Amino acid sequence: MSGPLGEFLVCVSMASATPALDRLRDPARWPSWQGAPSDIRFSAPAPGVSVWTRGEVRESLEGSRGGIGLAIEPGGAGDPAGAALQRWRGEARWSNAGLRGRYAYVLWDADARRVHACVDPFRTYPIYHATVGDCLLVASDLRLILAAGLLEARVSVGALYHYLNFSYIPAPYCAIEGVAKLPAGHALEGRPGAMRVFKHWDAVYPADLRGSDEERAAELRQRMIEAVSGFRPAGETSWGTFLSGGTDSSSIASILSRSAAPQKVTSFSIGFAEEGYDELGYSRLAAQCFGLDARERKVGEADALEAIPRLVEAFDEPFGNSSAIPTYYCADLAAQHGVRLLVAGDGGDEIYGGNERYRKDQIFEWFHRAPGIVRGAGRVVAGALKGVDTRLANRIKNFVYRGSLPNPDRFYSDDSFASDHFDALLSDGFRAQVGREDSLDVQREIYRAAQADCNLHRLMYLDLKMTIADNDVVKVVRSSRLSGTQVVFPYLDPTLIEFTGRLPGSDKVRGLEKRYLFKRATEDILPVEIRQKKKQGFGLPVSVWMRRPGPFRDMVHDILFSPRATGRGYFQPGHVEHLMKRHERGAWDHASELYILLMLELWHRHYIDGQHG
Question: Does the pTM exceed 0.85?
Answer without folding.
Answer: yes
